[in-house]
Structure formats: C-alpha cells, structure tokens
Amino acid sequence: MAEFVMPALGADMSAGTLLGWRKRPGDTVARGDIIADVHTDKADVEVEVFTSGVVEKLLVGPGEKVPVGTPLAVILEDGKAAPVLPPSVAVEAAHILASPSAKALAAELGVDLASVRGSGPKGRIQRRDVEQAAKAAGPPPAPPAPAPRPAPAPVEPEGAEAAMRRAIAAAMARSKREIPHFYLSETIDLSRTMGWLAQENLARPVQDRLLHGVLLLKAVALGLREVPELNATWQGEEVVPSDAIHLGVAIFLRGGGLVAPALHDADGQTLNELMRSFRDLVSRARAGRLRSSEMTDPTITVTSLGERGTESVSPIIFPPQVAIIGFGRLVERPWVSEGQILPCPLVTATLAADHRVTDGHRAAAFLTAVSRLLQEPEGL
Amino acid sequence: MITTYREAVRAALREALESDPRVFLMGEDVGRYGGAFAVSLGLLEEFGPERVRDTPLSESAFVGAGIGAALAGLRPIVEVMTINFSLLALDQVVNNAAALRYMSGGQFSVPLVVRMATGGGRQLAAQHAHSLEVWYAHVPGIKAVAPATVADARGMLLSALKDPDPVFVFEHATLYPLEGELEENGLPLGRAAVRRGGTDVSLVTYGGSLWKTIDAADQLAGEGVDAEVIDLRSLRPLDLETILQSLAKTHRVVVVDEGWRTGSLAGEVGMQISEQGFDLLDWPPQRVCSVEVPMPYAKHLEDAALPSAERIAAVVREMLA
Amino acid sequence: MSVREAAEAATSERKHALAQLKEMLRIRRFEEKAAELYSLGKIRGFLHLYIGEEAVAVGAMPALSEDDRIVATYRDHGHALARGLPPGALMAEMFGKASGCSRGRGGSMHFFDSSRRFYGGYAIVGGGLPIAVGLALADALQGKASITACFFGDGAVVEGEFHESMNLAALWKLPLLFLYENNLYAMGTGIERSQAQLDMELRARGYGVPAQAVDGMDVVAVEEATRRGAEAVRSGGGPQLVEFKTYRFRAHSMADPDLYRSKDEIEQWKLRDPIVFFEARLREKRLLDDASLAEVEAEVAAELDAAVAFAEAAPWEPLEDLERDVYTPAR
After folding, report:
1. pLDDT tens digits, C229-288
2. Residue of C nearest to B55 (CA)
3. Per-residue pLDDT tens over the stretch C28-52
4. Which of A342, B153, C84, C136 has the most CB atoms at less than 10 Å from its CB?
5. For chain A, what is the radius of gyration of the CA atoms?
6. Is A341 found in the same domain as A237?
7. Pair A185, A239 in one domain
8. Going by C-beta distance under 8 Å and a sequence separation of 6 or more, which residues neighbour residue C66?
9. CATH for B193-320?
10. Helices (H), C99-199
11. What does the radius of gyration of chain B's CA atoms come to, in whole angstroms?
C-alpha cells in the first residue's frame, strides 16, 4: 500500500491546493500517470503518481489546501495485498479524535475508527467520515490488478463478528490459493523446560508466574535469528526480509473470531517482559483495544490452541507473512529418554512455510533450533 | 390579522385590564406619555389613572410596590422602561420577588409581571444597550421569557398574567415595529418553538436575535445548508427537550445570544447540551454572542459588536466545512 | 363618666396594662432565652435581639387591627410576638425546624405569617419599605379600610428605598404608617455619623408626610402616638410617620462586640428600661404588686419553656422537600 502525497513542486513550496482528481478509487494507475491537478503559488501543475497499482481511497477533496507531504490518496500497489485487518474489531489507536456522535455511529455501523480518516479540525472524525467509510467498506480490499476481482458485497451495517468472519474467510482462502504451503513437524521433549519452569515459578508470586507458552514464543523468536528467511514478508514478486522479529500471537476472541497482533521485538524481550506483553495483548485484544500498528506489524505468527487444542495443528499462513508456527497442546506421553521409557511432557511444533521462499532443509533447521533452545530454558 | 409587536403587547394589556379588575399597569411614562415605546398609548384614557399608573423615577420602590401589591392579591404589571434601569430594582427582584415564597415556607405567592425593553442596536451606547436577561434567568423563584414574534408578544404576556409566580418579560426594543400575525400559537409559557425546520444544523436563539438567525438560515439555504431555527421563548425555565430533539437530527448546534459571551445564557445552553446530549454532537456546541465591550455608539462598531446574520452564517460554514 | 363606666374603664385599663406588661416581659424573656440558645448552638446564623425596645412593638400593635398589614425588619422577634405569632412557632423557626413559622426556611430574620398579615422579616436594610408601599397601594386600589404599618430603623432612613418609598406613599396618598424605630445606631454607625439631617420630623415634612416623635421607652406614649398616626392614615390623608426614640441594650447582633458604644451610655439607657419603667408606673397606680408580677413572670416562663420544648421536639423538613415552593405548584 502506498500513499500519494502532496509533492514539493519547488524548493520554496510549503503547501498546495488540490484542484481536482484525474483518477477515481478503483482506477488502475501506472507509474508516471497524471493523477491530479495541483495549484501552487506559482502555477497550476499536473501531478504524476510514482507507484503503479489501483487507487484505493482519495483522502483530500478539490479545493483543499494542504502542506507538502500530506497524504492525498492511497494506492494499492501491484502485487501487494493490504494487511489482514479484521475490520470490525473496535481497534482504537492511542488518540483517535472522533466526535461523540461519530463514535456512536461507528459502533452502530461496525466501522473501525482506526481505518477512518477524519475531515474535521485536527483530523477529527465526523459522522460523514464514518458514513463514507461504511459505504466504502464491504469485502476486503481488491487483490492486485491481474487477478479477477470478487464482486463487492452489498453494503449494509452488520455485526462485528460476522464481518470479521468474512474477512478471515477471504484472507484464508486467498492464502491457501496463492501460497504454496509445505509442512514440517517436530515433537519436542519439554522435560527440561517444564522442570526449570516449575522451579522458576515456585519462587514467584502468582501474578508473576510464567506460562510455558511464553517460553515457546521466546524459543521461536530466537530460532528465527538462525533462520531469518522465515521472518520475512512476500511483497509482489519478492521476499522482503525483516530486521525485526515481531511475533504475531494468535488470540482467539470470546464469542468467536481471531486476531494475531504483534509482540514487538520478541527476540529482545526477556521472559518477564514477554509475559507482561503477552498478557497485555490478550486483555486488550479481548477488550477491542489493539493498536493498528500491532495488527500490521507481525513478521511471523505463532498459534497455539492451548489446553483444549489437539496434539498438533497445521495452520495456514497469514499473508503477507511467509511462515506460521503452530503448537499443539502440552501432553504427557511415554518417551525414550536416556535409554528409558518415561512419561515426559511433550509438545508438537508444526511449521507451515511458503515454498516460494524456503525449502524443507531450512525449515527443518528452524524447528531443530527451536527444540534445542527449549532444552536450555535458562538461556531463553 | 397582521399587526405590530407593539400593538400586540397593547392588545394583551387591554384584554387583561378589561377582563380582570385585579390587573393594573404601573411604570414610568406608561400613562400620559403613552409609554416610552408607545405600547400603552391610549390605555390611560380607556382605564383611568388608578389602573394605568405613572410612577416617579423610583425603580426600586415601584418594583417593590408591585411585589407588595401582588402579595395583597392584585395582579400588577410593572413596566420598567428598560433592562438598563432595572438594575436599580435588582434587590427587590432577587431578595424579595424571587425569595418570598421559599423564604416564608410557601405562605405567599407573588403573581407579579414585570415587562422591560431590552437589547442594543439603536446606537444608544453603553448604558442603554444591555442584554442582561441571563442575570434574571439565573435566579430561582422567578421566570424569564422573551417573546420574539408578534403572536408571542400578546400570548406570552397573557400567559404570564396567569402565572402565580413572578414573570419577567423581555421585549427587545427593536421588535416593537415588527409586523406579524396575531394568531394563537397555544404554546405553554415554558416551551421553545421551532421557527424553521432543517436538518444540517440547529440554531438556537431568543428575543431580538431570532430574526437575524432566520436571516442567516435563509442565507445558508442559498448555499445548500438547511438550518433549523429554534426560538427559546422561555429563558427560565429552559426547554432543553426541544433543543435535543433538534440535535438528534442535525448533530450540530449554534446558540445565538445578544448577551456578552462570558457567562452568557448561550454558555448555559451549551453546557446543558453537553450534559444531556453529548452523544448527539458531531461538533462542539458553538455560540455567537456580543463582543465583550461596553456597547459603543458608532454604528459600525455597534454592528460589529452585536451578533449578526453574517457572523452566524460564518460559524455554521466553519462547522460544515 | 358614670361610676360604673369608670370602673369598667379602670378594669379594662388594668387588663390592658397587665397585658402590655406581660407582652413586654414575654419578649424580654424570649430574647434572653434566644441569646442563651444561640450560645448553645441551637440557634444559628444571625440573631438580632430586641431587648430594650419592647415598648415600641408592644405599644404599637394595639393600634393596628387584624386586617392591617405589618412589615418589619430582621430584628423582628418583638413585632412577631406582639402581633400574636406563637412563641413555639418562632422558636422552632430559629431552630430551623419544619414547624417554624416559615417552615425553617427563614430563621430569625425572616418570620412570616400570612394568617396574621405579618409580611416579614427582611435582611436587606430598607428592603421591606417598597413592599409596604405595595401592600398599601393594593388596599387603596381595592378601597379597603386596612392600613399597612412598616417598621424600620435608623439605617433604613438613609437608604434610597426609604426616600423612594416616602415619596411614592405621599404622592399617591397611600394608607401607610411609617414606624421609625430610632435606636441611634445602624449596626456600628451612630446617626450623627450617618444622617446629615437628624430631625426626622423635618425630613418627613419635606416629603409631605406628617410626623411625630415620641419616647420609645414609654409603652403608653408609644401606643398613644401610634393610635394618633394610624387614625390619621385611616382618615385617608395619606401616610404618616411616627418616630420612636428607643435604644437596644444589647449589641446589634450576637456577633457584634459592641465597641462603638460606651458602657456609660448603655447604663444610662438601662435606667430607662421600658419594662422597669412601666412596672413602676403600674405599681404607682396600684395596678401591680409583687404577687401579680410573679404570676406574670411565671406564666411567661411556662410559655417559654413550652415554646422551647416545642421547638426541640419539632421535626426537620425532609431533604426531599429542598426544592419545594421555589415556585407555586400548579393547581
């Protein structure tokens, strides 16, 4: 997704007035096309767009004067998909300015205020902005130009859950359709891990105790340092690796639905920090108070069905990520340990990876790393 | 039938004097002079000096006398020439008229009506241009009303006379020559009236500012903005209900009030709207009031100080930009 | 006059005299009690005692009929008692109870009783004068025979309201009796520091209002003067003013340290205590002796005890009624 901004059309230009648009939402643009006419102090100028793609949204209207650099339109670049955003979870950014009436209307229409651009002073969202957004919303954003576009669903206010389901359904279908998934599994002996954890938790007050899932998350994060090609996003025709490791943590919402917000820089956080971050994410996810950056930042997702899940899970990758790790539930099974058959705590880790990006070798190396890291829990 | 505001008040006075022997009119120059604004012209000849009583320039004494007469069973209509002079009688108003019932534990009612001309816009300068209705609206125990139409000039005075408590009637001085229909509107004293229906913004006002507000609405209509105009009619009690009903449609409100901005009645209305209608608001409540200066004499200065249709329209435009 | 008439006159004179003595004593003991209760915290706010001035209220009231209207000031206990308001209701009012004459809403300064045409009790000096004008105006307009008596002090006569009210009453020839209780001090300001023209008769004449001045410590003189004034008003000649030269033995209010008067002056005036003076007079005339005085005191004491008990037992107005009677309820 790219923003077309008010260009600086001269060294001393500080602001320009949009005279009119030459393209409308839905139009395809190629790099170099004239997209708008802009008035500056010196002249009226035809302005070209620097990205190819489809015009998604116009942010500024004719006659408006805005400073240089102000986003004027949103363009979906070729091959790039908009990030998966369940639109009806009431995601509230830290300071969304919206009139009381607009907030009430947004709740009523199931519009996510974080996705609405406000036309009022200080960018305050007003009723008409919400109404516009509700009209523009519907199915998830159109895929890149060559692929056939699904017919837009009729726009009507719907419940939060129904809209989320539709969004998830569309995203999952597209993922399976477009990404060549392959799967690897590893059963990991967590005797050492759980033993260490028990000792650790003995010394901690109840509210500070660590969950074993946090150890799994840390091991995944550290494992990704060793196999960084799994910590990347697929953009158009190529893989773009990510420097930072932001683990998307799948959180199942009460009443149905799923969000996978980011634990930022998971590899750098201590177990305590991860525990706190995780707790905070879960409570905010359930309260509908996640930030939009948390929704778009994950570089890889970790999912676990928890106590009530199955022994293993084969998840679907969340585009534009290139991998996803699923953990089954913790089970006690007979295991051969140092020549003896013993009941041991085990967990099955399943990695789904994008075969365009990596192969079995590298994927296996990742899982092996995770398992190894978990054998030395004090190093996590 | 078409008549003027002034004549409508006179009609009400005449009707009251005719129908109720307890009613009498008292004030400066109401008799021989015919009323400073010619409201009571001819009434002295018709009803005699006992019922249409000229007073000396003693605001405190004759307003207090009105209170005393009301206590003793009469229905006095005291005319204070303008709100500017009423300040001399504020002690009688606040400490007696407003408080007697409460202070005596409910033993007395004070069925007094006090009429006064109010407002600026006639180049009469700082001491003759006040719009201090809000001071009266502030005091529990009295009622304050502002008839802005010809029909209300008659109707609200007659309703006030039926009220057992003190009612202060504010007649904007520029309204006296206003022409209009004398039809009954049957609205109770405390109810506001929607003078013009609309969907884009609620313009709430009272008294002399009504007509400027309607002008502004007409101007805005030409620009595609449909403004609803609400005439408060009653300042105490205040009909918030009607305002909220309007706001539920428009989500935007401007209060137009000739009083000075700080501590204005508009401030009170805005606060009540915030308290009870918060979720209806798509924009903070706005107000157009007098600029905070003692009213200047020079026309261009006075015009700039007072609310005007242009200022009202400009505020609305900003809200809808 | 026949012997019989003389005897009857003597009896009624005696009755009347004893009643007046009792009335003054009732006020005196009531005020003393009020001072005590105030210092105990039962009575709050401001308390303005009438001690020393009893002869004025007691002497003036008989000149006024039940149809006449009375307006007083914040120093209204004496006038209210003399007008017949029950001591219990007044005590309860000062306690702030719902059984008070103003339902606990007014306190010491705002006694009201519509059934006795007692129109308050005003805390703003001079504030009651215009109301008195209005009451008189109403009676004049309705052709009623009643008159309005307005009590006020030396503080009021320099307020604008006094000037306006005198002028208006005289101009319209209203049945208004101005009763001027000159106790020489408006709180801490003596009349010589407040009035450019001390001669009230002269001032009143300036408005066209006939005036007389009498010794306010002599209940008989007060009654005589008030009757004369009331008669003149009733005859339709317009307002009259009667000045009573009197003195309050206590400070302006319970809060006043009384620094502006010399002890000597107060003692001098106490020598002319209206009750002591009247008692002496009655003894001289053989209308009073120790026994009958003791009886009167005992009756007064009993009444007062009952009044205090009534006030103590009386209920408080419920909080839910806080906003009741701001406006008259719709019928």
Report:
1. 999 999 999 999 999 999 999 999 998 889 999 999 999 999 999 999 999 999 999 999
2. C168
3. 999 999 999 999 999 999 999 999 9
4. C136
5. 24
6. yes
7. yes
8. C116, C117
9. 3.40.50.920
10. 128-141, 160-171
11. 19
- Where chain B has pLDDT below 50, the residues are none
Fold of B2-181: Rossmann fold (3.40.50)
Q: Which residues of B touch C124 (CB under 8 A)?
A: 91, 95
Q: Is there a catalytic annotation at residue B172?
A: no
Q: A336 CB near a chain B CB, below 8 Å?
A: no
Residues facing residue B14 across a β-bridge = none
For residue A320, say if its preceding peptide bond is cis, omega within 30 degrees of 0.
yes
Q: How far is CA A359 from the centre of its chain?
A: 24
8 Å CB contact between B36 and B117: yes
Residues A12 and A101 in one domain: no
Contact A100/B at CB under 8 A: yes
Residue at which a domain ends, from A77, A97, A127: A77
Going from the C-alpha of A348 to that of each of A195, A322, A341, B170, C215, the distances in angstroms are 18, 20, 18, 84, 114
Residue of C nearest to B73 (CA): C138
Q: Which domain holds residue A40?
A: 2-77
H or E element at residue B81: strand B75-82
Regarding whether A299 and A276 lie in a shared domain, the answer is yes
SS3 assignment, position A300: strand
Q: Does domain C3-321 have CATH number 3.40.50.970?
A: yes
Residue B187 φ/ψ region, left for φ over 0, alpha for ψ in the -120 to 50 degree band, beta for the rest: beta
Instruction: Determine, yes or no, domain membership for A268.
Output: yes
Residues of chain B within CATH 3.40.50.920 domain(s) are 193-320
Q: What is the C-alpha separation between A208 and A200, in angstroms, rounded?
A: 10
**Residue A260 falls within a domain, yes or no?**
yes
Q: What is the pLDDT of residues B194-236, one digit of tens each?
A: 999 999 999 999 999 999 999 999 999 999 999 999 999 999 9
Q: Which CATH number does the domain housing residue A297 bear? A: 3.30.559.10
Looking at beta carbons, which residues of chain C come within 8 Å of B107? 102, 112-114
Helix (H, G, I), strand (E, B) or coil at B232: coil
Rounded Cα–Cα distance for residues B18 and C108 (Å): 43
pTM of the model: 0.68
| pLDDT tens digits for range C177-230 | 999 999 999 999 999 999 999 999 999 999 999 999 999 999 999 999 999 999
Quote ipTM for the complex.
0.91
More confident residue, A368 or A234: A368
Q: Are residues A215 and A358 located together in one domain of the fold?
A: yes
pLDDT at A143 over 70: no
Is A274 within the bounds of a domain?
yes
